[in-house]
Write a structure and sequence with these properties.
Length: 747
């Protein structure tokens, strides 16, 4: 007898074995036989193919070569004969992380190039390392709002070139700064287009004010702080009409026009200063501008954005995509009244920060210094572009003390110090076979380096054993590829052992196949008079169904369109079998939408058990488990009254006994004639006669009224024609003409 300890150990062992067997069955069940090697490895990641020539037994299909590797090995396939590609990876370039005091050949990100071959459905992973080098070069472009409300800020910025350069040189010895300015589009309603106001838009006549412009690039990136102060000192304030500014136009041109700005492949910062809101895509329609922003550089020889009147403002998404692609990190320095707005904007633009700008920009240097430290301490690795179709990617971040798993947008580490190495595990999976190799670029936002990933998929079997006119194929009647004979024209069979013309039936059907023509190809089940229901092929006495059919005769469709109504299969009250709903108990109809009342549920059993009639009379004892008793009792509202199959009225009561079983009590009294369905024909005839007579009376009365009206109208017309109205003159009327007649004689 086993002790308690041994009993517990044995129980745990049996549980583990059951779990293992369950997993193996689940895995085996997910891989289905396929007719060829490439279809096999594409069907499921657990599928493998045995190319061993004699692996398949007589009577079996070559599709049996497709199964999980453990099953193939168990059935006797040699490990060397199993095609089960797992994908490969090869690192083409992996320079070690290093820094250089001269800022040349600095490597902060590795590896640099990697090639991945993916098995569809299986994940491949590799590690990316990053270490921020000390003193990495910085480019800073200062983009300023020159609308009239920024007058005090401009005067302060004119003196900050040296201070700004000194602050940046605390973190790097290689720094360049540049300058650009913006107001708004030079069309109504953004800018006053009256000629005098166009030339001098400020309200104060004697104000030193310049004409409004959309965006002007003033100074390319330079190491000369004095030149920065000199060029900024030449700038004058301007003005526009509305509160919102055209800053998005300026950011787009500053990011796109790399050559004019002078951006290097280093840490790139764009400082955006403003005290107003911003126009975005769609606002240009107010000025009659309908063309969307094209994301191209349109700076003329004077550095002015020349197409602002033709293209709309960019959208936030478009701006975020261009900044990320250009590897530019924006710093929004705005006044306190606009702080909340730009914080919301910053959430939509990767690797951007927002700082509060004092009323006269006196804190701008400290703001930029703090923002740079915040950006530099955050490392975000991502792809920052659309993934190729059928490719998914996730990131696991290993940040020293903290780890984050399964990030799909990118891996991120915060509070990373200089010379601290962080690692990211990049996991890539293909869900489809790629028609050609694809390229994917991974970058740390704000760093000019990148990881180039070349992707391809392993969807074809590289068996390497193709034998033309192989002896295995019945002495040379076909080519042997991946263990399968590809027969020459005129031969069929698994080993090409049968001549095609000898096996054709009257309708051109191949009657037999197999290594010895022993497989009968016309002995399969028929449905509706067709072999395999016309939905498959007969192979060796068994139907091989098409993809969307199943059953021994391929008579059952796997389509569910016939079961679907309003997006639900069988309305949730049944299950779909062969594209028809099989309803749960209590539900009826083609889509199980009609609720069956309890009386209807038990009617057939009550009828067959009480009277031996009805649809269940031939199999009553097996179909009905209820207990039925016959008695004569008074009928009340609890009793069911249903018409039986022979037309008689069936009265029964549904009850449950103490054990919970259904008890049917059938009333065995004769039903009086009053309970029978009355003859409705007399009532219907009476109603029809009432309608006919009523319609006749209405038409008759309408005719009488019409005749009377016509007579009265004719009498009125006759009187009007015969009327003689006397002519009446006004006695007080005096004509304007007076005639005098002289009756005397002429002298």
């Amino acid at each position: 007898m086993l002790s308690d300890g041994w009993t517990v150990s044995l129980g745990i062992l049996l549980m583990l074995q059951g779990m293992t067997c369950g997993e193996k069955i689940a895995e085996t069940g997910s891989c289905q036989p396929q007719p060829s090697c490439h279809e096999c490895i594409q069907s499921h990641p657990s599928c493998a193919w045995c190319k061993q020539p004699d692996f398949v037994q007589a009577g079996e299909s070559d599709a049996e070569r497709c199964a999980p590797r453990p099953e193939l090995e168990h059935r006797g396939c040699l490990a060397s004969e199993i095609m089960d590609p797992q994908g490969k990876q090869h690192i083409l370039e992996d320079r070690p992380l290093r820094e250089n005091i001269y800022h040349e050949n600095i490597t902060q990100l590795s590896p640099q190039r990697i090639v991945l071959q993916l098995r569809p459905g299986k994940e491949q992973s590799f590690t990316v390392r990053f270490k921020r080098a000390e003193g990495y070069p910085v480019d800073l472009y200062y983009l300023m709002d020159l609308s009239y409300s920024m007058k005090d800020d401009l005067e302060k910025i004119k003196q900050l070139g040296s201070d700004l350069m000194a602050a940046l040189r605390k973190v790097t010895t290689s720094v360049k700064i540049g300058f650009g300015a913006f107001v708004d589009k030079t069309v109504l309603p953004y800018v006053n287009m009256v000629p005098s106001k166009r030339k001098h838009p400020c309200l104060i006549p004697k104000e030193n004010c310049q004409s409004a412009f959309s965006y002007r690039h003033v100074l390319a990136l330079t190491e000369n702080a004095s030149e920065f102060e000199s060029r900024v000192g030449q700038q004058r304030i301007s003005a526009n009409l509305d509160d919102a500014e055209g800053g998005f136009d300026a950011i787009m041109q500053a990011a796109i026009c790399k050559e004019q700005i002078g951006w290097r492949n280093v840490t790139s910062l764009l400082v955006f200063t403003s005290d107003g809101t911003f126009h975005t895509a769609g606002d240009g329609k107010l000025g009659g501008i309908h063309m969307p922003n094209d994301g191209r550089c349109h700076l003329d020889a004077n550095g002015v954005y020349s197409k602002s009147h033709l293209y709309d403002y960019p959208s936030v998404g478009h701006l975020a995509e261009v900044l990320s692609r250009s590897n530019i990190q924006p710093i929004f320095a705005v006044t306190s009244s606009r702080l909340s707005l730009y914080k919301e904007l910053s959430k939509l633009i990767p690797k951007s920060v927002v700082g509060e700008l004092k009323s006269d920009s006196r804190n701008v240097v400290q703001l930029i210094e703090d923002a740079y430290k915040s950006l530099a301490s955050t490392v975000k690795l991502g792809h920052f572009s659309d993934l190729p179709p059928g490719i998914s990617i996730s990131y696991d971040s290993h940040c020293g003390d903290t780890e984050t798993y399964g990030q799909t947008e990118g891996g991120e580490c915060s509070d990373v110090s200089v010379n601290q190495m962080v690692q990211f595990t990049v996991k890539i999976m293909a869900t489809i076979c790629l028609p050609e190799s694809q390229k994917l670029v991974l970058r740390v936002l704000g760093v000019g380096e990148e990881v180039q990933v070349e992707l391809s998929t392993a969807c074809e079997c590289q068996c390497g054993d193709t034998q033309p006119d192989a002896h295995h194929c019945s002495g040379g009647h076909g080519n042997l590829t991946c263990g399968i004979c590809r027969c020459r024209e005129g031969y069929v069979g698994r080993r090409c052992g049968c001549r095609k013309e000898e096996l054709l039936g009257p309708e051109g059907v191949t009657l037999a196949s197999g290594p010895f023509c022993s497989c009968d190809n016309v002995a399969c089940e028929r449905h509706n008079g067709q072999l395999c229901a016309g939905n498959g092929q007969c192979r060796c006495g068994h139907c091989q169904c098409q993809a969307n059919y199943t059953g021994s005769a391929c008579e059952c469709s796997l389509d569910t369109s016939g079961c679907t109504q309003d997006g639900k299969i069988c309305n949730g009250h049944g299950h779909c079998v062969c594209n028809r709903c099989q309803c749960d108990v209590g539900w009826l109809g083609s889509h199980c939408a009609d609720h069956q009342m309890p009386c209807e549920v038990h009617r057939d059993c009550a009828e067959c058990k009480a009277f031996g009639t009805g649809p269940l009379s031939q199999n009553c004892s097996n179909s009905c488990s209820q207990t039925v008793r016959m008695l004569v009792a008074p009928v009340d509202e609890r009793w069911c009254q249903m018409k039986g199959g022979d037309g008689r009225l069936l009265i029964y009561l549904i009850e449950k006994d103490k054990t919970g079983s259904i008890l049917l009590t059938v009333n065995d009294r004769k039903v009086p004639d009053s309970t029978r369905q009355p003859n409705l024909m007399p009532a219907l005839m009476s109603a029809l006669m009432v309608v006919i007579i009523g319609g006749f009376l209405i038409a008759l009365s309408r005719g009488v009224v019409e005749i009377c009206d016509r007579r009265k109208f004719r009498r009125l017309e006759k009187e009007r024609k015969n009327a003689m109205w006397p002519q009446m003159n006004n006695v007080k009327f005096k004509s304007a003409t007076t005639r005098v007649t002289n009756k005397g004689k002429y002298l």
